[in-house]
Amino acid sequence: MNQKELGEIRRRFRPDHNNIQHIYGCYVNTNKEIIASFDESFGMLSQTEAEKYLTLLKKTLSGALGKNLLDISFATKQVMDGEEYQLLSQLRKTELQDKTLREAFCRCIVDKLDMEDRNYLILMAYDVYDVPHYSKDGQRDEDSGGDLYKYFVCSVCPVKEGKAELGYAPEEKRFHTEAIGQAVSAPELGFLFPAFDDRAANIYNALFYTKDSGKDHQDFVDAVFHTEAPIPAGRQKELFGEILSESLESDCSFDVVQAVHEQLSERMVLHKESKDPEPLTLTEREMGDILENSGVSPEHAEVFCTKCVEQLGDGTPLRPANISSASRMDIQTPEVKISVDPKNSHLIQTRVIDGHKYILISADAGVELNGLAVEIRE
Question: Which of 250, 280, 305, 331 has CA 20 to 30 A from 155's CA?
Answer without folding.
Answer: 280
